[in-house]
Specification:
There is one protein chain. The chain is α+β, with helices and mostly antiparallel strands. The protein has one domain. About 20% of the residues lie in helices and about 45% in strands. The protein has three helices and nine strands. The strands form three sheets. The protein has a five-stranded antiparallel beta sheet with strand order 3-2-1-6-7, with helices on one face. Strands 4-5 form a two-stranded antiparallel ribbon. The longest helix is centred in the first third of the chain and has 16 residues.
């Protein structure tokens, strides 16, 4: 999470120069695969600037290039994980911030879904995440001529 906060602060001026006050990111993942599905950008009055499928390349945020704005990978160092960046778009930057902020394992096994908000106004928390884990449960039932009962032996 610290890397996400540091990245927002580093690029705050870039985001604010595009009149962005709030960013919403929706994500979903399971089976060792995850995706940023939706991104929405709001101005200071709460008016939508743009929203839609996160991989849509036909918007200003996908077309505005920013130096070192896209998380490429992490390098292990004695001090911990160090993010490695490459040039990318504002959309790449927002997706990278989301990936840095999301709980570890959000895309693994049953996975999870949720929304993340970045608030640049200073009025609320900088990052808020509404996160739901998918959980798999099993129940066994026995079917007999007398009816159906839950199998308590398992």
């Amino acid at each position: 999470m610290q890397h996400a906060v540091e990245t927002i602060e580093k690029y705050r001026e870039v985001l604010e120069s595009l009149n962005i006050a709030t960013i919403e990111v929706r994500y979903e993942g399971s089976g060792d695969s995850g995706e940023i599905c939706y991104t929405g950008y709001l101005d200071k009055e709460g008016k939508e600037i743009w929203s839609g499928w996160a991989h849509d390349k036909g918007n200003i945020f996908s077309q505005t290039e920013v130096k070192d704005a896209c998380l490429q990978c992490f390098r292990c160092t004695k001090e911990g994980l160090l993010p490695i960046w490459r040039d990318g778009s504002v959309q790449d930057l927002v997706e990278s911030i989301a990936l840095l902020a999301l709980p570890g394992g959000w895309e693994i096994n049953e996975g999870s879904t949720g929304s993340l908000w970045i608030d640049l106004s200073g009025e609320g928390p900088l990052i808020r995440i509404d996160h739901s884990w998918y959980v798999m449960t099993t129940e066994d039932y026995v079917f007999t001529s007398e009816g159906v009962t839950k199998d308590e032996a398992t």
